[in-house]
Amino acid sequence: MEDIVYYRLPEADKYYVLRGATRELGSMSELNGVSGFVMAPFERDREHPLMLFMSSGIDQFPVPTDFHHEAVQWREIYNRADYRYSFSQMHRLLADGVLDKVVLAKRSDCKVNFWKGEVEDLFFNACQLYPHQMVVLVKSRRIGVWLMATPEVLLERKDSRWHTMALAGTQTEDVPWNLKNQREQRIVSEYVQNTLKPYVDDLQTVGPRTAKAGNLYHLCTDFSFTIKPNVKDSQLIESLHPTPAVCGLPKEAALSAIKSFETISRGYYSGFCGPWNIHDESHLYVSLRCMQMYDERNFSLYAGGGLLKESRDKEEWEETEAKMNVMRRLLE
Fold first, then answer.
1. 277-316 confidence digits (pLDDT tens)
2. CA separation, residue 218 to residues 10, 184, 312 (Å)
3. Under 8 Å CB-to-CB from 65, ≥6 apart: which residues?
4. How far is CA 42 from the centre of its chain?
5. Using CA atoms, how far apart are residues 29 and 164, in angstroms rounded to an integer?
6. Is the pTM here over 0.85, yes or no?
7. Could you tell me the CA-to-CA distances from 6 to 11, 55, 302 in Å, in that order?
8. Residue 127 DSSP label
């Protein structure tokens, strides 16, 4: 399999194809001064390294408007009992005040019964269905095949101005936000703002606002800024990742809870990816709404949701199901 990356930026009518050599990076600091497409896991380990797809060859094409998608016949293996166990363990820590927030992720393993298409077809379908999201397809001999359509910016730069966001709170209808979602957004927003302050100048905040992503609605606060002269780009990435939107707070306690009680390996789900220093711009997105394809007959869907002490198992399960529907819709 050739190493290749396809990506389409939000609101764009063109997509990019990147081919070339790949590098495994030992630390975030190795991103300073290089360019390429970055693919980072939630947490680095031997199986899930920080990858840089070199930008020696990038082609640009118009997104097809007359694309025909072949439906996939497939079945899904649910993990409801595993989710219920993880929720109960994490909720206990929230109720006891050990955690303010923690993000619980889940994975559904799926089997294809019949399909005549290619994974690139799903990428083009995502471009059509989700024009406001970052759509990415990575095919790598080292880390496998990952497809995502994500709404969340981790860090992006145009000229000298940088941008990030706090995205937290999810609902399926555009209705007034309940107190749980408002508190979750406030926790994430305050964390991002406090994290940025030592590294940036001219910090400007807008929001929270309601942002639509596919068939879901989120609360979003935007931050724009310049980086202080003595700060490296990689320092900013390390300070933000993983954000409370995919991890929790306090960060170390939330990471410990995730390692202890999640029953899955997240891999590259809830990591980040995107073009880095390409065309004098950078666009790193949190890797949400993910599908991992193992071969022509097996794939997995990933989703997660933020838990607070007010959270209830049934409501949180339904939220993650709604998030998984973003990828499920591609298969129809």
1. 998 899 999 999 999 999 888 999 999 999 999 999 999 9
2. 16, 11, 19
3. 128
4. 9
5. 19
6. yes
7. 16, 12, 20
8. H
